Amino acid sequence: MAHKSIETKYYEERASFFEDLARMGALSRRGFLQIAGVSAGLAAAKGLIVPQSFQLIEIAQAAETATPGFTIAYISDTHLYTRNVNDRFIRSAVKAVEEVNALDPQPDFVLFGGDLAQLGRGEELDLGAQILKDLKAPLKMMVGEHDWFLDLGEHWRSLFGPSQYSFDHKGVHFVTLMSVQEKDFWTARGMTPEERMHTVAGLDNGIQSRFEVGPEGRQWLQNDLAAIDKKTPIVIFSHSPLYKYYRNWNFWTEDADEVQAILARFDTVSVIHGHTHQLLLNRLGNISFYGLLSTAWPWPYAPEGLPKLTVQMNRADPFNAFDGCGNGQLNVLASGMIDKVYNLWNRNPVTVRANYLSSNGANDRPPATTLASY
Amino acid sequence: MRLSYHLALALSLAAGPALAGNDPPRHQLRASADGNLVIGLCDGETSIEVKGLKPGDQMTREQGQQIADALMTGWRQKHPEAKWVAAAEPPTEAQLPGVKAPAEKQFQTYGAFSERDRRIWQESTDRLVAEGKRIFHDAKALGGTNAISCDMCHPDASNTHPETYPKFQVQLGRVALLRDMINWCIENPVRGKPFADDDPRLKALEAYILAQRKGVALDYGKH
Amino acid sequence: MQLSRGKLAASFAAVILGGVLLALLGVAFTSSDNPPTAPATPTPATPTAATPAPATSGLATPEKQAPLKPALPLGISPQLYALAVPPGREPTAQLAALGEKLFKDKRLSIDDSVACETCHDPTKGFTDHRGNSATSAGVQDQHGQRNAPTVLNAMFQASQFWDGRAPALEDQAKLPILNPIEMGQKTPGALVAKVARIQEYSDAFKLLLGHDPTYEDIAAAIAAFERTQYSANSPFDRFLAGDPQAVSEAARRGWALFQGKGRCSSCHAFNAVSPLFSDQKFHNIGIAAHKQNFAELARKALGILKTGDTKQIDELALQTSYSELGRFLVTKNPADIGAFKSETLRNIGITGPYMHDGSLATLWDVMDHYNKGGVANPFLDGGMQRLALSEAEIDDLVAFLFTLTDDRFAEFNKAEMARQTSLKTNRPQRETEIAEGRKGDLGDAGITPDLRNPASIGAY
């Protein structure tokens, strides 16, 4: 095993460039063929050595995914306690804000994916609002169950406004759904608001109801979309996944089928959801689903029900308070489809191309897991 | 046919004392008007006519079971006061063909446990597991200082892999047992004081975690 | 003539010394057709194996040399030795002796001014202890960006250099010779020609290998010498072996803190098979962020990476300021930005100054750095957080670290401890408010555990 310094490796890569070109010629991907053909022709004509096969892949991908539209950054599931209780989650939330602020160019806006607070307390939500205030780009808020079930959303709404709203941006129709409604499990049990909140805050207690958008929410969605043309790309922000993943942990939306039916007539629909704290991908009919990372902690994959298109993220190292956590970007393409960047802290980012889900996993598979869950 | 065999055995035991000293009852079966098969119980009284079956016909296992059940139902209706003794479990050892099952079971005081014992044992174990579950879900009980509890990262104790210990645990830089990792987690993400090896809380946590992986094969050293 | 194993173990240093003398005397060796890297014969190596049979003719041909049977110290496991020494590269006494001579020879540099040992001084724990300058000096007193790490136990490392860019000792040895600010040779050929012109080397290589040296041969000889530099007979090793008096009470407390509240052992991993106090992985602990423009450099490098032009990054790697990107320059993994190898802590007391850039003068500075959770930067490893160690706990940890020095350097260790203690009052890295959690968001402080019996912890 001969040593290769950075320098040596570079020269070797240059030397193997033409071999790469030859190999690419055998590949079926049109992008590769075109680019490789052009480059090889150039190289032959001018006697130049074109550096780095890596570059070709980048160009080929850019050609395939068409012109980029705009970028949204996301931060989600910060689960803040107050500073005297827990500093770790604050540290992570602040890090996420600093990173989004360092993006150049800045995103068109920042999506917050819900669960700003851990136990829905006013102090927690106020602290979160204060941290998010430092964001340079405009902020779109979404509510999570941890924000809601202490006072049923009162304080959250006083800070951030309605929990359900829609808007249009550069030809895309965005809808933020309140998808963490639960049927009343607390009154019959005589629970205090704190007990209710604690119950909802746990995944595995089996007491709470399943999340739902609810009949009113669905009617609102129906009305909101009524006038929208089927060709208009739709992006739904929802805290719960809007499909049925794992019931025991409430990785689940009880009326998911009904919501999906409302969205069925559109050509391009993406659902961006929080709550599951993991790299999570699904495709059902016309809808691509993307889970968001949490800044606070990662959740393990559920023992069953994991969508087959999900390429798992590696198991996290508990020594590293950032590992398995992160933030990311949604690159909304001109087609209205989304390339999603999972900016996993202390790891290499993972980009999920829109084409991966829309091809039902046939193309652009994201990098494989090395430490799968079991 | 094992079930009917045992029913008959139990029946003869229950009925035995009443017949002691006499000749065994001879069951005079009345004939069927339609020439059907008639089967009598060994009490000398109860009998049943099997419609659609003539003497000498082959009967199925299901038919045989139905006949035996009907006969026993009849007997029990006639003897509502009878004390019913459940048959003992059949021996579990594999029997060689042609070798009779032993008539008696081994006995020792230690092994003479009843259903009541089993219940007590199970409930005791479940209580330790339940206590573990409580601590697992309670940052204060863990002695944590930052309101983080185990279930926040390990719902249903998932991703704890108790079956893989002992193993090299990267976070400790050495080989660990499950309890070492529990203590490491208490000390690090939970920011509490590690439990002493004989602390009942540590035992309870271990019990809960292990209980969640019932049936999973041991695989020490797995990563 | 054979020696018993015990005697062999005891006289290991003598083997090397003997080998040196033999090489210096230019004695002829017995010969065979096998190259020096031939697989080991089952015969245990003895000093006599290095003793040459009389040359039967003027034509020297290489002999079959038995590899040295290592007398492993307490703290090094045979499994680690087997894992670390590639088959066929077990050092022989002759090659190691030749390697030592090369290691110490300034003529390997362009202007006869710098030898390997200039920066890896065997009398100073194979580091350079440069006083005011943190980074090492090469030809014409040029300073690079990195602090010379020790050669002691380098043979056990999974990769060489602070950024791991060389997989093996042989690969490592070749690079400083050609580095313009280290030994300054223009090409491998130039060095080979220079060595071949030196009669004693020419003779020695011909005797050992049957031919004039190649660049590979020179590197192999230096590597063979370095594979004799294991070093793990320390007070701590005797403590773990069962002598509770081998280390002080303070050091025992420090050992418990090391594994607990101090959070040291996750990266400076110690276990029975790999007792190096290092996971051999790369972590961003914020040292790179001492340079004010680090975040900006990192973002620029990431931007370049997105364009796919990794060639540009290789060019940047040769520029001084980008050196702080560390492991990233080798792997191009964004996760490796600003990450450097967790160095072994063996002999740490005598191998200061500390960190890849030598920016921390004493072990107290190192403790201060970790206690405040490192230096914030966008790529800081999430394992770094404030530790809330008290001054007494810091003293205990430092006391523990000084027990990791091999007895061979006991006196030097004592002197270094005294010197560092005298600098204890000057604490440029100290930020007590952050360390204790009164300032900043650096995670939740741990609480002081009850000290368990440290001797029972961490042996496996």
Which terms would index this structure?
heterotrimer; A: 374 residues; alpha/beta; 6-stranded mixed sheet; 12 helices; 14 strands; 32% helix; globular; B: 223 residues; mainly alpha; two-stranded antiparallel sheet; two-stranded antiparallel ribbon; 5 helices; 4 strands
Outline the structure in words.
The complex is a heterotrimer of chains A (374), B (223) and C (460). Chain A has 374 residues and is of the alpha/beta class. Chain A has helices at residues 6-15, 17-25, 30-46, 53-64, 88-102, 122-132, 145-148, 154-160, 193-201, 214-225, 256-263, 354-358; strands at 68-75, 109-112, 139-141, 165-169, 172-176, 234-238, 244-246, 251-252, 269-273, 281-284, 287-291, 326-333, 338-344, 350-352. In chain A, 46% of the residues are buried. Mean pLDDT of chain A is 87; it is low at 17-66. In chain B, strand 3 (167-169) and strand 4 form a beta hairpin. Chain B starts with a helix and ends in a 12-residue tail after the last helix. Chain B has helices spanning 2-19, 61-78, 115-136, 178-187, 200-211, and strands at residues 37-40, 47-50, 167-169, 174-176. In chain B, helix 3 (115-136) packs across helix 5. With 460 residues, chain C is mostly helical. Helix content of chain C is 36%, strand content 1%. Chain C contains 18 helices and 2 strands. Chain C has helices at 5-10, 12-25, 78-84, 93-103, 116-119, 169-178, 188-197, 199-209, 215-226, 235-240, 249-259, 294-307, 310-317, 328-331, 363-371, 391-401, 410-422, 432-435; strands at 282-283, 340-341. Chain C has a two-stranded antiparallel ribbon. Chain C is globular. The chains are: A alpha/beta (374), B mainly alpha (223), C mainly alpha (460).
